[in-house]
Design goal:
This protein has about 180 residues and is of the alpha/beta class. The chain contains 3 helices and 8 strands.
Length: about 180
């Protein structure tokens, strides 16, 4: 991964927007007091990865109405690399009932927000970012166990409406490889 992207994002984004990566582990935290799933760890993350709290702050409701979920966002975006494969990993943490349409809206709106960040970097900072080099993945981490048998067709996580659902077990945190 280009260190230039990391440096540029750190330059243009507010400091509180970055998540914690420690000893090759990305640590996703939920601050809502009512949340049962308060932390998710992902092991095997490269040292130059970027973890962004993509739902940080308030969405700008001065331009768009929140129709169709355009102001919703997922919890985190991990920009990383596994071997030579570059990955954009959009992630949502959910303790309560999952409403699939809401999760899809969050993933779609987060994609748009990231697109906007990249456009700003291209237009104002001359950063060359090639989306075609990156594989997008969309993962929902749930606190409650998933059913033993799939209720609907197996999802690949390759698009917002095809996101992966993972039951998070703190005793067996997922690896980046298992999510990519």
């Amino acid at each position: 991964m280009s260190i230039n992207l990391k440096e540029m994002l750190q330059k243009i984004l507010v400091p509180g927007i970055f998540g914690e990566i420690n000893a090759r582990t990305a640590i996703l935290k939920e601050n809502d007091r009512s949340a049962k799933l308060r932390e998710v760890q992902i092991n095997g993350v490269s040292d130059d990865s970027i973890l962004i709290k993509i739902d940080y702050g308030q969405a700008n409701d001065q331009i768009f109405c929140n129709e169709n979920g355009s102001l919703k966002r997922c919890d985190y975006l991990l920009i990383t690399q596994l071997r030579r494969k570059k990955i954009l990993l959009f992630m949502e943490m959910k303790s309560n009932k999952v409403i699939s349409t809401e999760i899809i809206q969050k993933f779609r709106a987060s994609e748009c927000l990231f697109d906007y960040m990249i456009l700003v970097l291209r237009q104002f900072h001359d950063l060359d970012f090639n989306y075609n080099e990156y594989k997008k993945r969309f993962v929902l981490f749930q606190e409650k166990p998933l059913p033993k048998r799939p209720v609907h067709p197996k999802r690949t996580g390759s698009a917002p409406d095809n996101y992966l659902s993972k039951n998070y077990d703190p005793n067996k945190p997922p690896t980046l490889e298992s999510l990519s």
